[in-house]
Amino acid sequence: MTPKRPTLKTISEMSGFAVPTVSRALKDAPDIGAETKATVRRIAEEIGYVPNRAGVRLRTGRTMVISLVLSTDHDVLDDHTNRLISTVAKSLRGTGYHMIVTPYVTGEDRLDPIRYIVETRSADAIITSQIEPEDRRIAYMMERDFPFATYGRTRWCREHPYFDFDNGAFGEIAARTLLERGRRRLMLVSPPMGQSYAQHIVSGINKTLAEKGLELEILEGVTSHDTNERVRLALAERLARTDVPDGIIAPSTTAAISAVAALEHRGLVLGDNIDVFAKEAAPFLRFFRREVITVHEDVIEAGDFLARAAIRAIEQPDLPPMQALAVAHAPRPVDTLFGE
What is the model's pTM? Predict the structure, then answer.
Protein backbone atom coordinates (compact mmCIF):
# COMPACT_ATOMS: atom_id res chain seq x y z
CA MET A 1 0.00 0.00 0.00
CA THR A 2 1.30 3.47 -0.89
CA PRO A 3 1.90 5.48 2.31
CA LYS A 4 -0.28 8.52 2.80
CA ARG A 5 1.24 11.86 1.91
CA PRO A 6 2.02 13.93 5.05
CA THR A 7 -0.37 16.83 5.54
CA LEU A 8 -0.74 19.79 7.86
CA LYS A 9 -2.97 17.56 10.00
CA THR A 10 -0.11 15.06 10.30
CA ILE A 11 2.20 17.77 11.64
CA SER A 12 -0.60 19.00 13.91
CA GLU A 13 -1.06 15.57 15.46
CA MET A 14 2.68 15.07 15.96
CA SER A 15 3.36 18.54 17.38
CA GLY A 16 0.21 19.13 19.39
CA PHE A 17 -0.41 22.45 17.67
CA ALA A 18 -3.66 23.29 15.89
CA VAL A 19 -3.68 23.02 12.10
CA PRO A 20 -4.00 26.84 11.63
CA THR A 21 -0.98 27.33 13.92
CA VAL A 22 1.02 24.80 11.91
CA SER A 23 0.05 26.48 8.67
CA ARG A 24 1.03 29.94 9.92
CA ALA A 25 4.29 28.64 11.40
CA LEU A 26 5.29 27.22 8.02
CA LYS A 27 4.51 30.58 6.45
CA ASP A 28 6.75 32.34 8.99
CA ALA A 29 3.85 34.41 10.35
CA PRO A 30 5.11 37.14 12.74
CA ASP A 31 2.58 36.28 15.46
CA ILE A 32 3.95 32.72 15.82
CA GLY A 33 6.80 32.20 18.29
CA ALA A 34 10.28 31.18 17.15
CA GLU A 35 10.20 27.97 19.21
CA THR A 36 6.88 26.93 17.69
CA LYS A 37 8.16 27.63 14.18
CA ALA A 38 11.32 25.61 14.83
CA THR A 39 9.32 22.63 16.14
CA VAL A 40 6.88 22.68 13.22
CA ARG A 41 9.64 23.00 10.62
CA ARG A 42 11.68 20.20 12.21
CA ILE A 43 8.71 17.82 12.11
CA ALA A 44 7.82 18.88 8.56
CA GLU A 45 11.37 18.12 7.43
CA GLU A 46 11.51 14.79 9.28
CA ILE A 47 8.32 13.47 7.70
CA GLY A 48 8.98 14.96 4.26
CA TYR A 49 6.02 17.32 4.23
CA VAL A 50 5.62 19.18 0.92
CA PRO A 51 2.72 21.60 0.36
CA ASN A 52 0.27 20.56 -2.32
CA ARG A 53 1.02 23.37 -4.75
CA ALA A 54 -1.93 22.59 -6.98
CA GLY A 55 -4.23 22.91 -4.00
CA VAL A 56 -2.55 26.10 -2.87
CA ARG A 57 -3.00 27.63 -6.31
CA LEU A 58 -6.69 26.71 -6.36
CA ARG A 59 -7.24 28.29 -2.93
CA THR A 60 -5.06 31.39 -3.26
CA GLY A 61 -4.35 31.89 -6.96
CA ARG A 62 -0.62 31.72 -6.18
CA THR A 63 1.98 29.42 -7.66
CA MET A 64 4.23 29.73 -4.57
CA VAL A 65 7.12 30.22 -7.02
CA ILE A 66 9.58 33.12 -7.22
CA SER A 67 11.60 33.29 -10.43
CA LEU A 68 15.20 34.49 -10.41
CA VAL A 69 15.75 35.84 -13.95
CA LEU A 70 19.47 35.93 -14.75
CA SER A 71 21.78 36.38 -17.71
CA THR A 72 23.96 33.50 -18.88
CA ASP A 73 26.43 35.81 -20.64
CA HIS A 74 29.45 34.64 -18.64
CA ASP A 75 31.57 31.70 -19.77
CA VAL A 76 31.27 30.24 -16.27
CA LEU A 77 28.86 31.37 -13.59
CA ASP A 78 30.97 33.55 -11.31
CA ASP A 79 31.06 33.59 -7.52
CA HIS A 80 28.63 36.53 -7.50
CA THR A 81 25.93 34.71 -9.46
CA ASN A 82 26.41 31.42 -7.62
CA ARG A 83 26.09 33.10 -4.23
CA LEU A 84 22.98 35.00 -5.29
CA ILE A 85 21.23 31.82 -6.47
CA SER A 86 22.15 29.78 -3.39
CA THR A 87 21.25 32.55 -0.95
CA VAL A 88 17.82 33.27 -2.46
CA ALA A 89 17.07 29.52 -2.42
CA LYS A 90 18.19 29.22 1.21
CA SER A 91 16.23 32.30 2.29
CA LEU A 92 13.02 30.88 0.81
CA ARG A 93 13.27 27.67 2.85
CA GLY A 94 10.43 27.45 5.32
CA THR A 95 8.43 30.23 3.64
CA GLY A 96 6.29 28.02 1.40
CA TYR A 97 7.83 29.64 -1.68
CA HIS A 98 10.15 27.88 -4.12
CA MET A 99 12.72 29.36 -6.47
CA ILE A 100 13.19 28.68 -10.15
CA VAL A 101 15.98 30.15 -12.27
CA THR A 102 14.92 31.56 -15.64
CA PRO A 103 17.95 32.26 -17.85
CA TYR A 104 18.30 34.47 -20.88
CA VAL A 105 21.17 34.60 -23.35
CA THR A 106 23.08 37.20 -25.35
CA GLY A 107 21.03 38.48 -28.28
CA GLU A 108 17.70 37.59 -26.69
CA ASP A 109 15.33 40.42 -25.83
CA ARG A 110 15.69 40.69 -22.07
CA LEU A 111 11.99 41.46 -21.80
CA ASP A 112 10.98 38.09 -23.30
CA PRO A 113 11.42 35.88 -20.19
CA ILE A 114 9.82 38.56 -18.02
CA ARG A 115 6.85 38.88 -20.34
CA TYR A 116 6.40 35.09 -20.45
CA ILE A 117 6.33 34.78 -16.65
CA VAL A 118 3.91 37.69 -16.25
CA GLU A 119 1.53 36.60 -19.01
CA THR A 120 1.44 32.94 -17.97
CA ARG A 121 1.51 33.70 -14.24
CA SER A 122 4.07 30.93 -13.89
CA ALA A 123 5.52 32.67 -10.83
CA ASP A 124 4.21 35.01 -8.15
CA ALA A 125 7.20 37.37 -8.28
CA ILE A 126 10.44 37.99 -10.13
CA ILE A 127 13.92 38.86 -8.89
CA THR A 128 16.27 40.15 -11.55
CA SER A 129 19.61 41.95 -11.96
CA GLN A 130 21.77 43.87 -14.46
CA ILE A 131 19.41 46.80 -14.09
CA GLU A 132 19.34 49.77 -16.45
CA PRO A 133 18.32 53.31 -15.42
CA GLU A 134 15.20 53.15 -17.63
CA ASP A 135 14.84 49.38 -17.70
CA ARG A 136 11.99 48.22 -19.97
CA ARG A 137 11.58 45.06 -17.91
CA ILE A 138 10.94 47.02 -14.73
CA ALA A 139 8.60 49.48 -16.45
CA TYR A 140 6.64 46.51 -17.85
CA MET A 141 6.20 44.89 -14.42
CA MET A 142 5.30 48.19 -12.75
CA GLU A 143 2.64 48.90 -15.39
CA ARG A 144 1.08 45.47 -14.72
CA ASP A 145 1.41 45.57 -10.92
CA PHE A 146 3.41 42.34 -11.02
CA PRO A 147 5.45 41.75 -7.83
CA PHE A 148 9.23 41.98 -8.27
CA ALA A 149 12.50 43.04 -6.64
CA THR A 150 15.67 44.24 -8.37
CA TYR A 151 19.35 43.82 -7.64
CA GLY A 152 20.24 47.34 -8.72
CA ARG A 153 18.42 50.66 -9.11
CA THR A 154 16.37 52.22 -11.88
CA ARG A 155 15.56 55.91 -12.03
CA TRP A 156 12.16 54.94 -10.56
CA CYS A 157 13.73 53.00 -7.68
CA ARG A 158 11.86 54.97 -5.00
CA GLU A 159 8.72 53.25 -6.25
CA HIS A 160 9.84 49.61 -6.23
CA PRO A 161 11.72 47.05 -4.09
CA TYR A 162 15.47 46.89 -4.63
CA PHE A 163 18.78 46.01 -3.08
CA ASP A 164 21.94 47.62 -4.37
CA PHE A 165 25.61 47.93 -3.52
CA ASP A 166 26.91 51.50 -3.41
CA ASN A 167 28.97 51.27 -6.58
CA GLY A 168 29.49 55.02 -6.67
CA ALA A 169 31.28 54.76 -3.33
CA PHE A 170 33.20 51.74 -4.64
CA GLY A 171 34.45 53.89 -7.53
CA GLU A 172 35.49 56.66 -5.16
CA ILE A 173 37.29 54.25 -2.83
CA ALA A 174 39.08 52.55 -5.74
CA ALA A 175 40.30 55.82 -7.22
CA ARG A 176 41.30 57.31 -3.86
CA THR A 177 43.19 54.18 -2.82
CA LEU A 178 45.12 54.03 -6.09
CA LEU A 179 45.91 57.74 -5.95
CA GLU A 180 47.26 57.32 -2.43
CA ARG A 181 49.56 54.63 -3.82
CA GLY A 182 50.94 57.12 -6.34
CA ARG A 183 48.97 55.87 -9.34
CA ARG A 184 47.93 58.48 -11.89
CA ARG A 185 46.89 56.57 -15.05
CA LEU A 186 43.80 54.62 -14.04
CA MET A 187 41.87 52.29 -16.32
CA LEU A 188 38.51 50.62 -15.71
CA VAL A 189 37.39 47.25 -17.06
CA SER A 190 33.82 48.51 -17.12
CA PRO A 191 30.55 46.61 -16.97
CA PRO A 192 28.22 47.40 -19.92
CA MET A 193 27.71 51.16 -19.75
CA GLY A 194 23.96 50.85 -20.25
CA GLN A 195 23.64 49.32 -16.80
CA SER A 196 23.08 51.45 -13.72
CA TYR A 197 25.94 50.10 -11.65
CA ALA A 198 28.48 50.76 -14.42
CA GLN A 199 27.37 54.38 -14.53
CA HIS A 200 27.61 54.63 -10.74
CA ILE A 201 31.17 53.22 -10.76
CA VAL A 202 32.34 55.59 -13.50
CA SER A 203 30.71 58.54 -11.75
CA GLY A 204 32.46 57.71 -8.46
CA ILE A 205 35.87 57.32 -10.10
CA ASN A 206 35.53 60.49 -12.17
CA LYS A 207 34.43 62.50 -9.16
CA THR A 208 37.64 61.57 -7.33
CA LEU A 209 39.97 61.93 -10.32
CA ALA A 210 38.55 65.36 -11.21
CA GLU A 211 39.83 66.70 -7.89
CA LYS A 212 43.37 65.91 -9.11
CA GLY A 213 42.82 67.03 -12.70
CA LEU A 214 43.08 63.44 -13.94
CA GLU A 215 40.94 61.44 -16.37
CA LEU A 216 39.79 57.82 -16.37
CA GLU A 217 40.46 55.46 -19.26
CA ILE A 218 37.85 52.80 -19.98
CA LEU A 219 39.16 49.64 -21.67
CA GLU A 220 37.77 49.58 -25.20
CA GLY A 221 36.22 46.66 -27.04
CA VAL A 222 35.19 44.51 -24.07
CA THR A 223 33.29 44.73 -20.79
CA SER A 224 33.69 42.94 -17.46
CA HIS A 225 30.76 40.72 -18.55
CA ASP A 226 32.74 39.28 -21.46
CA THR A 227 34.56 35.96 -21.25
CA ASN A 228 37.84 35.75 -19.36
CA GLU A 229 39.71 35.13 -22.59
CA ARG A 230 38.30 38.18 -24.36
CA VAL A 231 39.08 40.45 -21.40
CA ARG A 232 42.59 39.01 -21.02
CA LEU A 233 43.41 39.47 -24.70
CA ALA A 234 42.06 43.03 -24.77
CA LEU A 235 44.09 43.93 -21.68
CA ALA A 236 47.25 42.29 -23.00
CA GLU A 237 46.93 44.29 -26.22
CA ARG A 238 46.38 47.52 -24.30
CA LEU A 239 49.33 46.87 -21.96
CA ALA A 240 51.64 46.37 -24.95
CA ARG A 241 51.51 50.10 -25.69
CA THR A 242 54.00 52.60 -24.28
CA ASP A 243 51.46 54.59 -22.26
CA VAL A 244 50.77 51.75 -19.83
CA PRO A 245 48.15 52.42 -17.12
CA ASP A 246 49.49 52.03 -13.59
CA GLY A 247 46.17 51.18 -11.94
CA ILE A 248 43.42 48.83 -13.16
CA ILE A 249 39.96 48.83 -11.58
CA ALA A 250 38.15 45.52 -12.02
CA PRO A 251 34.54 45.29 -10.73
CA SER A 252 34.49 41.47 -10.61
CA THR A 253 36.66 38.52 -9.63
CA THR A 254 36.92 37.25 -13.20
CA ALA A 255 37.95 40.66 -14.55
CA ALA A 256 40.62 40.95 -11.86
CA ILE A 257 42.07 37.52 -12.65
CA SER A 258 42.14 38.42 -16.36
CA ALA A 259 43.93 41.67 -15.50
CA VAL A 260 46.60 39.89 -13.47
CA ALA A 261 47.13 37.29 -16.21
CA ALA A 262 47.50 40.01 -18.85
CA LEU A 263 49.92 42.21 -16.92
CA GLU A 264 52.11 39.27 -15.91
CA HIS A 265 52.13 38.13 -19.54
CA ARG A 266 53.54 41.55 -20.45
CA GLY A 267 56.26 41.29 -17.80
CA LEU A 268 54.71 43.82 -15.42
CA VAL A 269 54.91 43.25 -11.67
CA LEU A 270 51.65 43.45 -9.70
CA GLY A 271 52.03 45.89 -6.82
CA ASP A 272 55.21 47.37 -8.33
CA ASN A 273 54.61 48.62 -11.89
CA ILE A 274 50.85 48.40 -11.62
CA ASP A 275 48.05 47.86 -9.09
CA VAL A 276 44.76 46.01 -9.51
CA PHE A 277 41.78 47.15 -7.43
CA ALA A 278 38.84 44.74 -7.50
CA LYS A 279 35.37 44.05 -6.14
CA GLU A 280 34.55 40.48 -5.14
CA ALA A 281 31.72 38.51 -3.53
CA ALA A 282 33.96 35.87 -1.92
CA PRO A 283 37.36 36.43 -0.24
CA PHE A 284 39.36 34.78 -2.99
CA LEU A 285 41.56 37.20 -4.90
CA ARG A 286 44.14 37.92 -2.21
CA PHE A 287 44.79 34.22 -1.86
CA PHE A 288 45.33 34.14 -5.62
CA ARG A 289 47.64 37.20 -5.57
CA ARG A 290 47.99 38.93 -2.22
CA GLU A 291 48.87 42.22 -3.93
CA VAL A 292 45.36 42.58 -5.39
CA ILE A 293 43.46 45.28 -3.49
CA THR A 294 39.85 44.25 -2.83
CA VAL A 295 36.50 45.54 -1.65
CA HIS A 296 33.84 43.05 -0.54
CA GLU A 297 30.26 43.04 -1.87
CA ASP A 298 28.02 40.98 0.40
CA VAL A 299 25.87 39.01 -2.04
CA ILE A 300 24.55 36.84 0.80
CA GLU A 301 23.00 39.93 2.37
CA ALA A 302 21.63 40.90 -1.05
CA GLY A 303 20.05 37.52 -1.77
CA ASP A 304 18.38 37.30 1.62
CA PHE A 305 17.01 40.84 1.34
CA LEU A 306 15.71 40.30 -2.19
CA ALA A 307 13.91 37.09 -1.20
CA ARG A 308 12.15 38.88 1.66
CA ALA A 309 11.40 41.92 -0.51
CA ALA A 310 9.78 39.73 -3.18
CA ILE A 311 7.59 37.98 -0.59
CA ARG A 312 6.45 41.32 0.82
CA ALA A 313 5.64 42.54 -2.70
CA ILE A 314 3.45 39.43 -3.14
CA GLU A 315 1.74 39.32 0.24
CA GLN A 316 1.69 42.95 1.38
CA PRO A 317 1.59 45.08 -1.78
CA ASP A 318 0.10 48.05 0.09
CA LEU A 319 3.16 48.40 2.34
CA PRO A 320 6.13 50.56 1.25
CA PRO A 321 8.54 48.54 -0.93
CA MET A 322 11.61 47.14 0.83
CA GLN A 323 14.76 48.99 -0.25
CA ALA A 324 18.41 48.90 0.82
CA LEU A 325 21.73 50.35 -0.31
CA ALA A 326 24.74 48.45 1.05
CA VAL A 327 27.72 50.49 2.22
CA ALA A 328 31.05 50.06 0.44
CA HIS A 329 33.89 49.76 2.96
CA ALA A 330 37.55 50.60 2.48
CA PRO A 331 39.77 47.57 1.70
CA ARG A 332 41.30 45.68 4.62
CA PRO A 333 45.09 45.72 5.01
CA VAL A 334 46.46 42.60 3.33
CA ASP A 335 48.35 41.50 6.43
CA THR A 336 45.10 40.94 8.33
CA LEU A 337 44.26 38.07 5.96
CA PHE A 338 47.39 36.11 6.77
CA GLY A 339 47.65 36.53 10.53
CA GLU A 340 50.79 38.65 10.30
Answer: 0.80
